[in-house]
Give the backbone structure.
Amino acid sequence: MDFVLLAKAAVMGIVEGLTEFLPISSTGHLILAGALLGFDDEKAKVFDIAIQTGAILAVIIVYWQKLRDTLVALPTQKSAQKFSLNVVIGFIPAVILGLLFGKLIKAHLFTPAVVASTFIIGGFIILWAEKRPPSAVRVNDADDMTWKDALKVGLVQCLAMIPGTSRSGATIIGGMLLGLSRKAATDFSFYLAIPTLIGAGAYSLYKERALLSIEDLPMFAVGLFFSFLSAWLCVRWLLRYISTHSFVAFAWYRIAFGIVVLLTAWTGLVKWAA
Protein backbone atom coordinates (compact mmCIF):
# COMPACT_ATOMS: atom_id res chain seq x y z
CA MET A 1 0.00 0.00 0.00
CA ASP A 2 1.34 3.42 -1.00
CA PHE A 3 0.99 5.46 2.19
CA VAL A 4 2.33 8.60 0.50
CA LEU A 5 -0.45 8.39 -2.08
CA LEU A 6 -3.04 7.86 0.66
CA ALA A 7 -1.69 10.88 2.53
CA LYS A 8 -2.06 12.98 -0.62
CA ALA A 9 -5.60 11.67 -1.07
CA ALA A 10 -6.40 12.69 2.52
CA VAL A 11 -5.07 16.22 1.99
CA MET A 12 -7.03 16.58 -1.25
CA GLY A 13 -10.16 15.33 0.50
CA ILE A 14 -9.74 17.93 3.23
CA VAL A 15 -9.25 20.70 0.67
CA GLU A 16 -12.38 19.57 -1.21
CA GLY A 17 -14.52 19.39 1.90
CA LEU A 18 -13.41 22.76 3.25
CA THR A 19 -13.86 24.65 -0.03
CA GLU A 20 -16.80 22.99 -1.78
CA PHE A 21 -19.54 24.85 0.08
CA LEU A 22 -17.78 28.15 0.71
CA PRO A 23 -18.01 30.82 -2.02
CA ILE A 24 -14.30 30.46 -2.86
CA SER A 25 -14.13 27.76 -5.61
CA SER A 26 -13.04 24.26 -4.70
CA THR A 27 -11.70 23.74 -8.24
CA GLY A 28 -9.06 26.46 -7.96
CA HIS A 29 -7.91 25.19 -4.57
CA LEU A 30 -7.76 21.57 -5.72
CA ILE A 31 -5.66 22.52 -8.76
CA LEU A 32 -3.21 24.45 -6.58
CA ALA A 33 -3.04 21.74 -3.90
CA GLY A 34 -2.70 18.99 -6.51
CA ALA A 35 0.17 20.78 -8.22
CA LEU A 36 2.00 21.32 -4.93
CA LEU A 37 1.55 17.63 -4.02
CA GLY A 38 2.33 16.26 -7.47
CA PHE A 39 -1.19 14.86 -7.56
CA ASP A 40 -2.41 16.29 -10.85
CA ASP A 41 -2.50 13.60 -13.55
CA GLU A 42 -5.63 12.49 -15.43
CA LYS A 43 -6.62 10.03 -12.70
CA ALA A 44 -6.29 12.79 -10.11
CA LYS A 45 -8.74 14.92 -12.07
CA VAL A 46 -11.32 12.11 -11.88
CA PHE A 47 -10.53 11.75 -8.17
CA ASP A 48 -11.16 15.47 -7.57
CA ILE A 49 -14.67 15.19 -9.01
CA ALA A 50 -15.51 11.83 -7.46
CA ILE A 51 -14.71 12.87 -3.89
CA GLN A 52 -17.38 15.57 -4.11
CA THR A 53 -19.74 12.73 -3.20
CA GLY A 54 -18.19 12.62 0.27
CA ALA A 55 -18.84 16.33 0.71
CA ILE A 56 -22.44 15.88 -0.42
CA LEU A 57 -22.98 13.12 2.13
CA ALA A 58 -22.13 15.70 4.78
CA VAL A 59 -24.86 18.01 3.46
CA ILE A 60 -27.37 15.15 3.46
CA ILE A 61 -26.59 14.41 7.11
CA VAL A 62 -26.74 18.07 8.20
CA TYR A 63 -30.08 18.54 6.39
CA TRP A 64 -31.35 15.04 7.07
CA GLN A 65 -34.42 16.11 9.04
CA LYS A 66 -35.60 18.42 6.26
CA LEU A 67 -34.84 15.90 3.52
CA ARG A 68 -36.55 13.05 5.37
CA ASP A 69 -39.65 15.10 6.13
CA THR A 70 -39.86 16.15 2.49
CA LEU A 71 -39.61 12.58 1.22
CA VAL A 72 -42.26 11.36 3.68
CA ALA A 73 -44.64 14.19 2.76
CA LEU A 74 -43.95 14.09 -0.98
CA PRO A 75 -47.00 11.98 -1.96
CA THR A 76 -49.52 14.14 -0.08
CA GLN A 77 -48.24 17.64 0.73
CA LYS A 78 -48.06 20.38 -1.88
CA SER A 79 -45.30 22.19 0.00
CA ALA A 80 -43.03 19.12 -0.23
CA GLN A 81 -43.91 18.69 -3.91
CA LYS A 82 -43.17 22.34 -4.59
CA PHE A 83 -39.81 22.16 -2.81
CA SER A 84 -38.77 19.00 -4.68
CA LEU A 85 -39.85 20.45 -8.01
CA ASN A 86 -37.82 23.60 -7.35
CA VAL A 87 -34.68 21.51 -6.75
CA VAL A 88 -35.28 19.60 -10.00
CA ILE A 89 -35.89 22.83 -11.93
CA GLY A 90 -32.72 24.35 -10.50
CA PHE A 91 -30.73 21.24 -11.42
CA ILE A 92 -31.79 20.95 -15.08
CA PRO A 93 -29.84 23.92 -16.55
CA ALA A 94 -26.52 22.55 -15.28
CA VAL A 95 -27.23 19.17 -16.87
CA ILE A 96 -28.12 20.64 -20.26
CA LEU A 97 -25.38 23.26 -20.45
CA GLY A 98 -22.79 20.94 -18.90
CA LEU A 99 -23.36 18.28 -21.57
CA LEU A 100 -23.38 20.88 -24.36
CA PHE A 101 -20.41 23.01 -23.35
CA GLY A 102 -18.38 21.04 -20.77
CA LYS A 103 -15.64 19.92 -23.16
CA LEU A 104 -15.44 23.33 -24.81
CA ILE A 105 -15.01 25.07 -21.48
CA LYS A 106 -12.27 22.66 -20.37
CA ALA A 107 -10.44 23.15 -23.66
CA HIS A 108 -10.49 26.94 -23.75
CA LEU A 109 -11.19 28.46 -20.32
CA PHE A 110 -8.84 26.56 -18.00
CA THR A 111 -6.16 29.26 -18.08
CA PRO A 112 -4.54 31.32 -15.30
CA ALA A 113 -6.07 34.51 -16.66
CA VAL A 114 -9.61 33.11 -16.60
CA VAL A 115 -9.26 31.46 -13.18
CA ALA A 116 -7.68 34.54 -11.60
CA SER A 117 -10.21 36.86 -13.24
CA THR A 118 -13.20 34.87 -12.00
CA PHE A 119 -11.76 34.75 -8.49
CA ILE A 120 -11.22 38.50 -8.40
CA ILE A 121 -14.42 39.51 -10.21
CA GLY A 122 -16.39 37.14 -7.98
CA GLY A 123 -14.90 38.83 -4.95
CA PHE A 124 -16.09 42.25 -6.07
CA ILE A 125 -19.54 40.84 -6.90
CA ILE A 126 -19.80 39.53 -3.34
CA LEU A 127 -18.91 42.98 -2.00
CA TRP A 128 -21.61 44.46 -4.22
CA ALA A 129 -24.21 41.88 -3.16
CA GLU A 130 -23.55 42.54 0.51
CA LYS A 131 -24.28 46.25 0.04
CA ARG A 132 -27.88 45.67 -1.05
CA PRO A 133 -30.53 47.26 1.18
CA PRO A 134 -32.67 45.05 3.44
CA SER A 135 -35.68 45.97 1.30
CA ALA A 136 -34.14 43.99 -1.59
CA VAL A 137 -34.88 40.71 0.22
CA ARG A 138 -38.24 39.27 -0.85
CA VAL A 139 -37.70 35.54 -0.03
CA ASN A 140 -36.66 34.74 3.53
CA ASP A 141 -36.93 30.95 3.39
CA ALA A 142 -36.02 28.45 0.67
CA ASP A 143 -39.47 26.89 1.04
CA ASP A 144 -41.03 30.17 -0.15
CA MET A 145 -39.18 30.21 -3.48
CA THR A 146 -41.18 30.03 -6.69
CA TRP A 147 -40.24 27.85 -9.65
CA LYS A 148 -39.01 31.00 -11.39
CA ASP A 149 -36.66 31.70 -8.47
CA ALA A 150 -35.35 28.13 -8.68
CA LEU A 151 -34.82 28.37 -12.43
CA LYS A 152 -32.91 31.65 -12.10
CA VAL A 153 -30.64 30.20 -9.41
CA GLY A 154 -30.16 27.11 -11.58
CA LEU A 155 -29.10 29.28 -14.50
CA VAL A 156 -26.71 31.23 -12.29
CA GLN A 157 -25.25 27.92 -11.09
CA CYS A 158 -24.13 27.26 -14.68
CA LEU A 159 -21.63 30.12 -14.33
CA ALA A 160 -19.68 27.75 -12.09
CA MET A 161 -18.64 25.81 -15.18
CA ILE A 162 -16.15 28.65 -15.69
CA PRO A 163 -13.16 27.62 -13.53
CA GLY A 164 -12.63 29.74 -10.45
CA THR A 165 -16.24 30.91 -10.22
CA SER A 166 -17.38 28.57 -7.40
CA ARG A 167 -20.66 26.68 -7.57
CA SER A 168 -21.56 27.71 -4.04
CA GLY A 169 -20.53 31.28 -4.72
CA ALA A 170 -22.61 31.48 -7.89
CA THR A 171 -25.74 30.04 -6.29
CA ILE A 172 -25.51 31.81 -2.93
CA ILE A 173 -24.48 35.25 -4.16
CA GLY A 174 -26.61 34.91 -7.30
CA GLY A 175 -29.58 33.98 -5.13
CA MET A 176 -29.00 37.00 -2.91
CA LEU A 177 -28.89 39.31 -5.93
CA LEU A 178 -32.15 37.74 -7.12
CA GLY A 179 -33.88 38.65 -3.85
CA LEU A 180 -33.22 35.68 -1.56
CA SER A 181 -32.08 36.23 1.99
CA ARG A 182 -28.57 35.09 2.88
CA LYS A 183 -29.96 32.03 4.69
CA ALA A 184 -32.46 31.11 1.95
CA ALA A 185 -29.77 31.38 -0.72
CA THR A 186 -27.34 29.27 1.32
CA ASP A 187 -29.91 26.59 2.11
CA PHE A 188 -31.05 26.29 -1.52
CA SER A 189 -27.44 26.17 -2.67
CA PHE A 190 -26.89 23.15 -0.42
CA TYR A 191 -30.09 21.43 -1.59
CA LEU A 192 -29.16 22.05 -5.22
CA ALA A 193 -25.67 20.66 -4.62
CA ILE A 194 -27.03 17.19 -3.84
CA PRO A 195 -28.18 16.19 -7.36
CA THR A 196 -25.59 18.41 -9.08
CA LEU A 197 -22.46 17.03 -7.43
CA ILE A 198 -23.66 13.43 -7.21
CA GLY A 199 -24.52 13.58 -10.91
CA ALA A 200 -21.16 15.14 -11.83
CA GLY A 201 -19.25 12.53 -9.80
CA ALA A 202 -21.14 9.59 -11.25
CA TYR A 203 -20.79 10.89 -14.81
CA SER A 204 -17.06 11.50 -14.41
CA LEU A 205 -16.45 8.01 -12.99
CA TYR A 206 -18.42 6.41 -15.81
CA LYS A 207 -16.77 8.45 -18.55
CA GLU A 208 -13.22 7.88 -17.27
CA ARG A 209 -13.71 4.31 -16.00
CA ALA A 210 -10.90 3.04 -18.26
CA LEU A 211 -8.40 5.02 -16.16
CA LEU A 212 -9.42 3.30 -12.93
CA SER A 213 -8.73 -0.10 -11.39
CA ILE A 214 -9.50 -2.00 -8.21
CA GLU A 215 -6.15 -0.84 -6.78
CA ASP A 216 -7.50 2.73 -6.72
CA LEU A 217 -10.22 1.91 -4.19
CA PRO A 218 -8.16 2.74 -1.05
CA MET A 219 -7.17 6.12 -2.51
CA PHE A 220 -10.78 6.99 -3.35
CA ALA A 221 -12.02 5.70 0.02
CA VAL A 222 -9.56 7.91 1.92
CA GLY A 223 -10.43 10.95 -0.22
CA LEU A 224 -14.16 10.39 0.26
CA PHE A 225 -13.81 9.99 4.03
CA PHE A 226 -11.78 13.15 4.56
CA SER A 227 -13.94 15.07 2.12
CA PHE A 228 -17.00 14.04 4.13
CA LEU A 229 -15.46 14.84 7.50
CA SER A 230 -14.11 18.28 6.57
CA ALA A 231 -17.30 19.20 4.68
CA TRP A 232 -19.46 18.19 7.66
CA LEU A 233 -17.46 20.48 9.94
CA CYS A 234 -17.44 23.27 7.35
CA VAL A 235 -21.19 23.19 6.60
CA ARG A 236 -22.10 23.24 10.28
CA TRP A 237 -19.70 26.15 10.85
CA LEU A 238 -20.97 28.08 7.81
CA LEU A 239 -24.62 27.85 8.89
CA ARG A 240 -23.68 29.34 12.25
CA TYR A 241 -21.41 31.93 10.66
CA ILE A 242 -23.99 33.40 8.26
CA SER A 243 -26.44 33.94 11.10
CA THR A 244 -24.25 36.78 12.38
CA HIS A 245 -21.80 37.56 9.56
CA SER A 246 -21.78 38.59 5.91
CA PHE A 247 -19.69 37.08 3.08
CA VAL A 248 -17.36 40.10 2.89
CA ALA A 249 -14.40 38.17 4.33
CA PHE A 250 -14.75 35.59 1.56
CA ALA A 251 -14.79 38.38 -1.02
CA TRP A 252 -11.39 39.68 0.07
CA TYR A 253 -10.08 36.11 0.29
CA ARG A 254 -11.14 35.53 -3.34
CA ILE A 255 -9.35 38.66 -4.49
CA ALA A 256 -6.17 37.64 -2.66
CA PHE A 257 -6.39 34.07 -3.99
CA GLY A 258 -6.81 35.36 -7.53
CA ILE A 259 -3.48 37.12 -7.13
CA VAL A 260 -1.99 33.83 -5.86
CA VAL A 261 -3.25 32.09 -9.00
CA LEU A 262 -1.46 34.62 -11.19
CA LEU A 263 1.75 34.28 -9.18
CA THR A 264 1.76 30.46 -9.30
CA ALA A 265 1.18 30.55 -13.05
CA TRP A 266 3.84 33.22 -13.62
CA THR A 267 6.43 31.28 -11.60
CA GLY A 268 5.49 27.99 -13.30
CA LEU A 269 4.58 26.39 -9.97
CA VAL A 270 1.16 25.23 -11.20
CA LYS A 271 0.14 23.68 -14.52
CA TRP A 272 -3.16 25.38 -15.30
CA ALA A 273 -3.86 23.51 -18.54
CA ALA A 274 -6.96 21.31 -18.60
